[in-house]
Amino acid sequence: MSQFxxxxxxxTELYKNVTHEEWNNWKWQLKNVIRxxxxxxxxxxxxxxxxxxxxxxxxxxxxxxTPYYASLMDKKYKRxxxxxxxxxxxxxxxxxxxxxxxxxxxxxxxxxxxxxxxYPDRVLFLITHVCSMYCRYCTRRRVVGVEDxxxxxxxxxxxxxxxxxxxxxxxxxxxxxDPLMLPDDRIxxxxxxxxxxxxxxxxxxGSRMPVVLPQRITAKFVEMIxxxxxxxxxTHFNHPREITLESxxxxxxxxxxxxxxxxxxxxLKDINDCPxxxxxxxxxxxxxxxxxxxxxxxxxxxxxxxFRTSITKGIEIIENLRGHTTxxxxxxxxxxxxxxxxxxxxxxxxxxxxxDRRLVLRNYExxxxxxxxxxxxxxxxxxxxxxxxxxxxxxxGVAKLLxxxxxxxxxxxxxxxxx
Length: 419
Ligand SMILES: *Cc1c(COP(=O)(O)O)cnc(C)c1O
Ligand code: SF4
What we know:
This protein has 15 helices and 12 strands. By secondary structure, it is α/β, with parallel strands linked by helices. The structure holds pyridoxal-5'-phosphate and iron/sulfur cluster (SF4). The site of pyridoxal-5'-phosphate has 7 residues, from strand 1 and strand 2.
């Protein structure tokens, strides 16, 4: 298959008779997704132990790898970063005591099937449970790839009804599974229904297709999406090696159609837990018009503990990015709080000390500097003639404390309170 730019890692005979048209057709790719050991063995070398481990894993979790993504795997090298993301290892069958089925309480905070309403003005809306490639570290493995619930019309209707009824929702994030597994007309149905709702300002689609099946981003698809702007796409590159000619073309088609593209990576042990790899990734992303958005600390989902590294590593990565490269290339490192607390951003400390008058700060080079604060810092906020303070209400959480509406926030069930 030497005629294709991405096949440099693939020395397999398996696809040698595949035509250019077939290879670049996402439906052909989907039809030929690798789900079993005999086919996988035609692409990469598997030792006897790996094969029996894989068999045990497949009893518990599904495997799916698109031929395109498989073609990026190194045939021999077991620690190939593509292979580690796609091929199950025996550790998946092991549960650690800190592991949870639904660590982010996406099912708990769910007013309609597949819909999570955690933040005041936006919802996460899962419209399918299937993906073209099952990432081995998937945080949603409790639902993703478990059953073939491709598109549950009734659930989608319930989700849409909830969004229609809640005027506070101005941002809808379509996710899954991978929403782009659905045919264009199903996606268009959801987009057009959302667009009929006046309070929905933006629509975001979370999809790994530009990475694992870039052929999915067809000219026809982007033409359709254009009709429903503003539509954003957040994709999911984890390693610079995933940025190929094909994935670059997929991103170009989206960007040319006016779709702003963001990237959400997961911090993964032995894959991208390295400042040099991350720097290369974020720089290459900007070059293909993708803005690095988040790096996630790996969640506490079951069977993915072998992918976790320390939070410290994430902070070290940000330390090596901020100031050292283009500011736009620097994503926010977040921990999604177990129990549904949402995303918590973390970064190195740049504030070293403070007094009434001065702050002592340090920059990325370690230069220590001061900033002198003004005397009169009380703003006239709330007194100007265009003030629309009411639009901020109802205030919640810490914002409520800052406004003076509430004096304390305290945990439920404090022993002191029972005395
Ligand atoms: C991540 C997430 C969002 C979106 O968060 P942003 O910070 O706005 O990108 C919304 N809802 C849920 C449940 C999420 O996990
Ligand atoms: S694409 Fe997303 S939802 Fe699908 S398996 Fe990968 S991480 Fe999970």
